[in-house]
Amino acid sequence: MTALHIPVLLDEVVAALAPAPGMVMADGTFGAGGYARALIAAGAQVHAFDRDPDAIAAGLMLAEATGPSPSLILHHRRFSELAETLREAGVGLVDGVVLDIGVSSMQLDQAERGFAFQTDGPLDMRMARDGESAADFLNTADEAQIADVIYRYGEERQSRRIARAVVAARPVTTTRQFAEIVRRALGWHTGEKKDPATRTFQAVRIHINGELDELAAGLAAAEAVLAPGGRLAVVTFHSLEDRMVKQFLREASGMVPGGSRHLPELARASAPVFGKPSAAIRPGDEELARNPRARSATLRWAIRSDAPPRDRAPRSQGELAA
Question: Count of domains in the chain?
């Protein structure tokens, strides 16, 4: 398989995870395999997860090339299912977990997947290619539901105006049509600094794929599967995700009391389950010049202690974004 893109903050992620021969690591968001390749090159065995069947299919050649004692084992599963999947594969605790949250470059660049509006395509946005599509949601939900999704997950103050325009324009079937509806609703003109359709596309995508639920469950799963001294590295691309990761690591390291509006109330552990987390790490000028899509990326990482994992009560995606 030929890598389709270099993942953001690659050197920083590898430095955070510190892979070495004999280590076992989990890549929760395989995508085009960039992080997995780097970890394998350092001698680690990687269990790679992706809910997107296209990503798994594209990774088969790389997995086969690692030989009869494979360095890459692919799992067509969500990263929230890390613990049970590794257990089923006969793997105990792992030495590292990396999560790269959000949509991949492969998905953005395929017009037929409906994640972006730079080229026209069907209004889909489903990472796993099953369930409700973006078009299904926008054409059946009531105006208040649509406005709530756009406000919560896109942090768009004009969400009600956009939702009203969407309902008036139904049926909405293509990415270009949806983007134009948003632009007209907000009075945006070509050449203005930032296209407002970006926030609304993000919001609908997060809703369709349950991304905040997945992130909360994935962080808990990583806590459960990491060995003492194991490392967690998480790359996010917008403020909702980064706030969740920051709060998770602060609570897990004992820096703040358990429980917040972003994460479930936590039973107090006898000791912190992670060491002090890193500060936010962002791309430098050289990387931004090479890959403008990296501009909103943030990496946070921490090292697992030997304390047992915490218990947590599940909360809905809406509560996580509230």
Answer: 2
What CATH number does residue 136 fall under? Answer: 1.10.150.170
Please tell me whether residues 97 and 152 are part of one structural domain: no
Q: In what order do the strands lie in the sheet with 72-75?
A: 72-75, 45-49, 24-27, 94-100, 226-236, 298-303
In this prediction, residues 244-272 reach a mean pLDDT of 74
Say which CATH number the domain at 45 has. Answer: 3.40.50.150
pLDDT tens string 267-278: 444 589 999 999
Output the six-digit token pair for 185.
């609703």
> Residue for token digits 């389950």?
273
Cα distance between residue 123 and residue 7, in whole Å? 25
- Answer yes or no: pTM beyond 0.85: yes
- CA separation for the pair 259, 312 (Å, rounded): 9
Who's near 297: CB < 8 A, 6+ residues apart? 8, 9, 235, 236, 237, 282, 283
